[in-house]
Amino acid sequence: MKQFNTVLLAAGALALSACGSATGVNSASGAAAASDTQGPYASTYTPYPGVPTALVGATVYDGKGGTIEGGTVLFAGGKLVAVGGPDLAIPEGFTRIEAAGKFVTPGIIDIHSHLGDYPTPAVDAHMDGNEMTDPVTPQVWAEHSVWPQDPGFSRALANGGVTSLQILPGSANLMGGRSVTLKNVPSRTVQGMKFPGAPYGFKMACGENPKRVYGEQGRMPMTRMGNFALNRKTWIEAREYADGDREERDLAMETLAGVLDGEILVHNHCYRADEMAFVLDMAKEAGYRVSAFHHAVESYKIADMLREADACSAVWADWYGFKMEANDAIPENAALIHNAGACVVIHSDDENGIQRLNQEAAKAQADGRRMGIEIADADVIRWLTLNPAKAMGIDAMTGSLEDGKMADIVLWNGDPLSVYSRPEKVWIDGALLYDALDPQRRPVSDFELGQPGAGDVK
Amino acid sequence: MKPLAALAAAIAAMAVAAPGTAQDFAIVHATLAIGDGSDPVQDATVIVQGGKVVASGKDAAVPQGVPVIDAAGKWVSPGLFAALTDLGIYDVDAVWQSNDTSAGEAPFSAALDVAPVVNPEAQNIKVSRAGAVTRASVVPRAGSSIFAGQGAVIDLGADPDPIVTRRAFQYVELGETGARLAGGSRMAAYVSLANALAEARDLAERERNDDVLLNRPDAAALIPVVNGEQPLYVHVERAADIRSALALRQDFPKLDLVLVGASEGWLAAREIVAAGVPVIAMALNDLPASFEQLAASQSNVGRMVDAGVKVAIGRFGDMNQPRYAPQQAGNLVALNRIPGAAGLSWGEAFAAISSVPAEISGLGGQAGVLRPGAAGDVVIWDGDPLELSSAPLRVFIDGVEQPLDNHQTRLKERYRTPEEGELPKAYDW
Known about the structure:
A: alpha/beta, B: about 425 residues, eight-stranded mixed beta sheet
């Protein structure tokens, strides 16, 4: 029940995160900062050392829809060097890993996580995902809520092969605040996990959650029309600010101006098709673009419109029925969106689901197949890799196995679309950070040290 | 149409949609999962007559005149048994008007009985049936006290009578949830439980006086518990709480205990085995979601089974749908390839979602297994039932073939292409 309540709110939040522009103390230098390498609270992440490595003989899904049988994947210095077939020469000095019968994919990316801002243990003192004091809080940043000692990060790595993830504010508010994109590398600080160069996201939320949370307080919004009125009012104010000299510091307006500048990507929690259609019109009216609709369980009803708007749908495989706006969720949603030519992302919104995004994608693929929609395995892997990378604005750096990209790689001990497979090794920027065959190559958070089960297989 | 004629027409229409009667049939050339923990058998036969399994295995001979279903390339298994669900007791979980899972404002707790509430037309029953779940236990959520009330065993057949066993068990919260419900501490939960059982014993012996905390219906409901005639499901997670729950039998020796949750069961496996108490656990808990689950691990079930504990995968509710049971069982098979982890064999994993929960729920030999005498709950799958790409093709309950359509399947067909046609989508049905 606790988990359910958390999900209701988490699912309701709208991640509206603005990029670092104009948020720094020095707005002159911050104005152009589209990523978290600049501005305040900048990323201090640096890759851990790795060795030049050749993965040889595996089935390789490159993340952008390609498959190589008996593939060779070379990486060194934290970057992918070359990806090819059995004939690709392995340079001297590369450690060779025989991977015949195994599978290689890009690191898995979760576009919707609350690890850190709704961490485990899920005690009241840890409930940092929803600033439920006002329905419009573009000024809050999820990174300031993230607890880097959340044990969930390690499970996502070891069981899910997750190498990058977006942490969003919850869905209680219409405008919930900025998201942060992290590398799934343990650190003492959040800055030490921040994905260098990733744009900020902005969380927004449609529907039941904002109107329930504030309506129960007798405040606006109490209705869906209230939701839109308050959003539109805020966008009008944001436009005035953005068109002005921007000299007065205003954390909320700086975030919204970043959205209107196109530097901060909108992630909009929205279940129902009719509401998504209104959001697309609101985005036109206000002058921004929706990067992805999250929990978009009714995208299948408007997949054509979402294709035209170039908006991704971040979805579960088959959650349904937990709330009224999820009543029309169907397991064929992802396949129908894909079939219409629109962008599918499989997301978790859940500390357990993030450990099995590959399995959720496999179920969604099979549900499509049973209604006659055949989707190639390599395209399904894209739902967990390049598509979320694109919607998060990090696709130039990660999300596919291409020369020069970050060496974020999962070696699976079998087909990742089979229930019988698990990650065997996970590299992030070329550093081996999980190895199922080496009990020491497994992160254990500060919280778990000295507790029952610390360092267990989990 | 006149009212009477309309009624007659409606009844006629319903008769068309009504479930068939039990068919005799034989499924041949299938890969057979019996459900009893054994490995799958190739090219096997299952014979159902009079709604019951009469034979299964490689050597079963099909009697003359029994219709044959050729399942070459397919799998056949017993229907799944989902232990501890909320099937049939809400339509939309967060819509309180539709939700009967909990009665927090009621003056009753142990007396609550889920049986009259179960709605066989609920979508979660239909969706689960299409996911191969043919029987389940249904449990209320504790609301006003540590006692959630009395659960039922149901079948998921498309007919008006879902109840298999009414008042199948009593359910009590004793961990963090029990502490909260009892007034803020596990101490209060244990006193509440001991007092309630004592009052039930007194009432059974006609010694009830005015100095009581429980109302009469709640005390009366606990008489079969204290007498050991109705199982008591105890939800505890922490190893220490498991030991304290097992110790309840020192004061109430007849208690027929079942442990629920037991995320740290692997740390108390020896004690659980010694007590001979079965467990209904979640398969994939591996996070310290609370301070009572610090040692949670996906190896919990495998380690308990290795120690000799009878463990069912269960606790399906909220987002954890009963149709996920095969996926969860499959994950435990996958663990066998991870050094240091404890998984299940394929046969053990399938049993953990079929015969084992059926046995714990009082249907040993009668459900969750394709052995002679068991209910004709049979599923034909398009592949390995535990694999993500597989799905049921045909589902039989008590020998009756079941419809597999529901709200979701109708929406899928309506929106095969999103664009409106010559008429609005609303006319496409």
